[in-house]
């Protein structure tokens, strides 16, 4: 099994929004910010090649279809995801599965592409099954008022029309080495991806725990639509991560990509920061 991280681009998010009710006096010690109080976030995707021949892409970043509508987020260093995959020897046709943690714009923009501005969007990975949480899909079709502006129908409707959308209604094994688990809170039916690497379990935590700084259970983003649920779901993920020494991948942290977790006096903390090198695990820093 080979697990590779792909930084699909960066954007700026308001620090107050990222850390919700946590005062700046506390969060400023854990995450850098600029003079407008904005935090630089990455949009980290993961390419997983399994021993059984699956080529799995986890999340796709913002893509480039809605950059004008989203200019407030000041995107930078956006990559062409297809070219990034090609540089790793993977063509768009070779991708067997696309797992979308959820359907907010920063996670699924490259699920579909336009061949030109006048064309309609088509699935970017024509042979792939696209995996989405069922309740997340329902929320995408009939969004809560707080999330409506984070969803763009053209990012997923062409996938549904192609017959390649597979909705996940319960925790599911994609194959022997990769499983999908449902988490609520940030948004309904988010998927976290558990990868059973020979060196240990690696977890794509999605926006359940977007930053290493969000490891503290009460540090819930103001973007989370059901914050009390977020708290309990995060604790569920962290408890297992501590007990099983799992490696968490933080999808938005521009400075810390992965770490293990420790629990001290009932507080969760980042333990060892991990570097994935050439898809191999782990190199403890
Ligand atoms: Zn996000």
Brief account:
The protein has 285 residues and is α+β, with helices and mostly antiparallel strands.
Annotate the secondary structure layout.
Layout: E1 2-14, H1 15-19, H2 24-27, E2 38-49, E3 55-58, H3 81-86, E4 97-99, H4 105-108, E5 112-113, E6 122-123, E7 129-133, H5 134-141, H6 157-161, E8 165-168, E9 172-173, E10 178-183, E11 190-197, E12 200-204, H7 227-243, E13 247-249, E14 258-264, E15 267-277, E16 280-284
Parallel strand pairs: 3-4, 4-7, 7-8, 12-13
Antiparallel strand pairs: 1-2, 2-3, 5-6, 9-10, 10-11, 11-12, 13-14, 14-15, 15-16
Bound molecules: zinc ion.
Zinc ion is lined by residues 104, 106-107, 207, 252.
Structural features:
285 residues, alpha+beta, Metallo-beta-lactamase, Chain A, eight-stranded mixed β-sheet
Task: Characterize the structure shown.
The chain has about 280 residues and is an alpha+beta fold. It has a single domain, classed as Metallo-beta-lactamase, Chain A (4-Layer Sandwich). Helices cover about 15% and strands about 30% of the residues. The chain is built from seven helices and 16 strands. Strands 9-10-11-12-13-14-15-16 form an eight-stranded mixed beta sheet, covered by helices on one side. It has a six-stranded mixed beta sheet with strand order 1-2-3-4-7-8. Strands 5-6 form a two-stranded antiparallel ribbon. Bound molecules: zinc ion. The site of zinc ion has 5 residues, from helix 4.
